[in-house]
Write a structure and sequence with these properties.
By secondary structure, this protein is mainly alpha-helical. The protein folds into three domains: 7-238, Transferase(Phosphotransferase), domain 1, CATH 1.10.510; 240-277, no CATH class; 288-402, no CATH class. Helix content is 56%, strand content 8%. The chain contains 14 helices and six strands. The chain has helices at residues 17-27, 53-61, 69-88, 142-157, 170-189, 194-207, 235-238, 240-254, 259-275, 285-322, 332-347, 350-353, 359-362, 367-402, and strands spanning 7-13, 32-35, 40-46, 50-52, 101-105, 121-125. Helix 3 runs antiparallel to helix 4 (142-157) and helix 3 packs antiparallel against helix 6 (194-207). The model has no long low-confidence stretch (mean pLDDT 91).
């Protein structure tokens, strides 16, 4: 089993308090910290127990972990059933994506590894009611968006699925793809309800004798899945301990820099480990970490400069507006202090913290623009609130002087 011993904090904003309370009460994913004042919810996520769907896809696509076709179909089925369940109960998730779908492993589950493992889990969603985006994410009903996500899962994962030797040549693989997976894609491209896709997958699992018994060697597999390679005792099995030690070393090293660097180092290392399991060599952590840290620092500096200019312009505009009603003397020092308080508040806001949930967001070269677009929506209120506090203070001083 792989051993990803690290914890992240995921922060999401929400727009409607009643809707988010209903959603998280139903979803039951990790103890969340609910903050109604700044309209945010945060989760402490143990990555040894919870797997982000985007991470799982990346590991499979990189040929790092083994997963049966039966397990892949069951994963797709489970995600579809989750969407159907929440919508049947009146819960909307209009901003679903690969980063907001989580696989929470049960106590009896193994962890994905270099060899096939027994996986027992529940599916959970985060980001209900959160419109913040790190890409061109737009509002879309979950039962529609999930079809796009299912196509991504199939596209990125099927080529890494190992089948029985007599099924593993390209011609037969193509036939299996056409018989099992292409109809799922066709259903996703149609206006059919997700229930139709669910029933189709259930039928295929039954047709190909899907096995779920943990005590059976052919766990969670179809009768066309690989049943010879990559089990206990295989060549890949013998490398698990070494890979685990190296992954642990990567995480421990990255902890001095923070979660973004940990995930950057993992995302950089995993494909390189997978491509040459027998003789890979570890990267120069210090060099890679410092390089990425410099990128993070430059982006943060760029973001801070953009926010400073935006706040300075906003404060000046509002002071000019208020000057028509109030005739207080406000010196430059007070203005600078006011601006800095607003900037600090914005940089610590959930709207900014959201974009540091995962390295996947920071991969995007346009991330600074996405963050800036998010904070411009809250900056007006921040400026107005801080100015109101300042004016109340001035009025109180004036009253005291008059007394």
């Amino acid at each position: 089993m792989l051993n990803l011993q690290y914890v992240t904090e995921e922060v999401y904003t929400f727009e409607n308090e009643e809707d988010i309370i209903k959603a998280i009460s139903l979803d039951q994913f990790q103890p969340g910290t609910f903050n109604p004042l700044n309209k945010s919810i945060s989760y402490k996520i143990n990555h040894n127990k919870c797997i982000r769907l985007r991470d799982l896809i990346f590991w499979i696509e990189s040929d790092f972990i083994r997963i049966h076709l039966g397990q892949l179909l069951y994963l797709i089925l489970s995600i579809l059933q989750k969407v159907e369940d929440i919508e049947n109960k009146g819960i909307e998730h209009n901003y679903l994506d690969l980063n907001r779908i989580w696989i929470q492993l049960s106590e009896i589950s193994q962890y994905p590894s270099l060899i096939y493992q027994f996986l027992d889990y529940s599916i959970h969603f985060t980001g209900y009611n959160c419109s913040l985006k790190d890409q061109d994410l737009y509002q879309q009903q979950a039962s529609i968006k999930i079809k796009e996500i299912i196509k991504i899962i199939i596209d990125k994962c099927f080529n890494r699925i190992q089948l029985k030797k007599n099924n593993n040549n390209q011609e037969i693989r193509n036939q299996i793809y056409q018989q099992i997976l292409q109809p799922i894609i066709d259903l996703c491209n149609s206006n059919q309800s997700i229930n139709i896709i669910i029933e189709y997958i259930k039928q295929k699992l039954n047709d190909y004798n899907y096995q779920y018994n943990q005590n059976n060697k052919l766990i969670q597999s179809l009768n066309i899945d690989d049943n010879d390679n990559d089990y206990i005792g295989s060549k890949r099995y013998k490398l698990i301990q070494k890979v685990n030690n190296d992954i642990k070393q990567i995480i421990q090293f990255g902890q001095k820099y923070g979660i973004i660097i940990i995930e950057y180092l993992l995302n950089y290392s995993i494909p390189r480990i997978a491509n040459n399991l027998k003789s890979y060599s570890l990267i120069d952590y210090q060099k890679k970490a410092l390089k990425q840290q410099n990128i993070q620092n430059e982006r943060y500096k760029e973001l801070t400069n953009m926010i400073e200019q935006h706040i300075q312009d906003g404060v000046k505009y509002h002071l000019d507006e208020y000057s028509n009603y109030y005739k207080f003397d406000i010196n430059q020092q007070e203005i600078k202090q006011l601006e800095q308080e607003i900037i600090n508040s914005i940089l610590q806001s959930p709207q900014v913290k959201y974009f540091y949930n995962t390295y996947w967001f920071q991969q995007n070269e346009q991330i600074v623009n996405y963050i800036f677009a998010a904070i411009t929506k809250i900056s007006k209120k921040e400026i107005e609130d801080k100015l109101e506090t300042l004016f109340i203070h001035k009025i109180l001083l004036l009253i005291i002087d008059l007394i």
